[in-house]
Design goal:
Blueprint lengths: L25 E5 L6 E5 L8 E4 L3 E3 L8 E3 L6 E4 L11 E2 L5 E8 L2 E8 L9 E2 L3 H4 L21
Parallel strand pairs: 7-10
Antiparallel strand pairs: 1-2, 3-9, 4-6, 5-6, 8-9
Amino acid sequence: SDDPQLNKCACFPILNPPNNNVRVPVQVARCPSGKNNSLIARCAFERGTAIGEFVGLITKGIEGVDVMMGGHDDTQYQIYQGRMGNYTRFINHSCAPNAQFTKFVFCGIERILVVSKGIEAGVEITVDYSSSYWNKLDKVCLCGESCCRYQRKKG
């Protein structure tokens, strides 16, 4: 469900491991295709596995820059990762993604996770940024998929 209230869960051990020395099984890498950096899976992620929490500066009203929209109706907010956040800020868009954003409530606070749709080791992790992202920016999609929906700039 896209309703975070229906996705209440207190059991995401990959995000809160008992040993803080556990390494995250991903690697930031430079993309040869012009997409800047990307996030590569160093191991396979089964379908439904949490890859990481999408975090950053919580704000409102930023326009013309990359932000993730959160909340719903009367409680809208934005997550701006810029030079902050964590490794999830390096996940690129794809019109045929292998991961997705999932909202849920943990201890009364809405969280956004990146969840695998089934990813093999050595593959770039991608999500669909959605039309609400692309409609607000004057950018061209670089996913290279045959089903690409955002190849042209607004004009």
